[in-house]
Amino acid sequence: MLANIPRLMRAYYTERPDLSIPAQRVTFGTSGHRGSALDGAFNETHILAITQAICMYRQRHGIDGPLFLGIDTHALSESALASALEVLAANGVDVMIDDRDGYTPTPVISHAILTYNQRRPGGLADGIVVTPSHNPPEDGGFKYNPPNGGPAATDVTEWIQDQANALLAKDLVGVKRTPFERARRAPTTHRHDYMDAYIADLGSVVDLDVLRGAGITLGVDPLGGAGAHYWTMIGERYEIPLTVVSDVVDPTFRFMTVDWDGKIRMDCSSVYAMQRLIALKDRFDVAWACDPDHDRHGIVARSSGLLNPNHYLAVAISYLFTHRPEWPKQAGVGKTVVSSGMIDRVATRLGRRLVETPVGFKWFVDGLTDGSLGFGGEESAGASFLRRDGTVWTTDKDGIVLGLLAAEMTAVMGRDPGELYRELTAEFGESAYERIDAPATPEQKAMLAKLSPRQITASELAGEKITSLLTTAPGNDAPIGGLKVITPGGWFAARPSGTEDVYKLYAESFKDRDHLHRIQEEAQVVIQRALLAGSAR
Is 246 part of the annotated catalytic residue set? Predict the structure, then answer.
């Protein structure tokens, strides 16, 4: 079942996309363009076209500073970097590549962009990260971060996507390109010490001094990702008792246990994929893992094993807003519409404004930049937060600091994140949360994305009166691309999948698991009725 890397590389360079097949066009989802070369979805022609489109976007918007370029450890990332560099050099773009010819986590790119742009009126920097996140080894990914350092907004990615597809349709006529060796030695290609710049600044966002004398044991599993060689330097520089479980990098990711569906997937929020670190939970007071580009986190506590991502977000918010006295008093809490209601309860107790957005970290970028958000987090185990002085740290997800935060709170509170979450449930009640996938045709998915509350005829859900029907997010009134239904004791939200013929059904109950299952069953009936009514029109 291991990826055939030579075959994958051959497909990257020899296969050409068929634009009559939607899956083979350039498509930017919530985190860039992703796909496998074996499926004609991530090939050299895609990367050449996307990179040229980014160069056109930069010129159109006067972005003329350096471009910070980083890759993760997927097999296709090295080749995609080479392809991108050929185009960037030919377009005269100053490119910053890793001075060790190594891998660069997504948050490190965001940090580099923001650090460079700080108090700079012009000549702003932006970045590209070559990563498909936690996707299987056969996949590649390519995403653009504009000068705000975060994931590009929808209007930006749509423009780049459309230009890239137009270039593909013209057989790359209009794409500037120079041979790789010439691009690598071009005067516009520069070496940058990403690792030292980021690691030297970590103390400004997490209290690492408290870890030195705390007497706690800490472990980290990089899951063969871009931060594999960062963790040893972090431990040595800050003199903290950090054990790196493994720093092996292998493009087949053969060391992983398979995920719930039998696929190799480096998902640090999955109990299936995280078996190696879970098995070591009694060896450490707290441990964590990150996905290949290190923008997501998985926290393993001695008391509870792997924490549900929602549980850890709630604990992190509760801790940060009571242990960061220099944060702005108006700084709010950012969460997505499909994140746990436990976060709502914590925010209320803290007296902090809750900003509920559609799915996608891009919605938190402005708030983290101006300090109106102290924390932004997604149910899929991605989050970032302000520096200790209340200024912006990163505007993209940062699994590194979320792992180190688990260590900080364990040292300060004398209890691990699992124990701290139990204290929240004692205060607010237990929560049963789950996401499942339900079948849906492409036509049904399109209808679901455009549902109106008027199409929902139900007045009750799982024995409770429906109090809210949402198709836009309360925090910014942006469309959520689906539906959220709320009752006093629970809720569900449904969104179409961007890659499969299913819709994602998120549900939560503050009663019990039986009530959760009732919500899930009745939610599917509510959705099917709305879709049938829509198709009958």
Answer: no
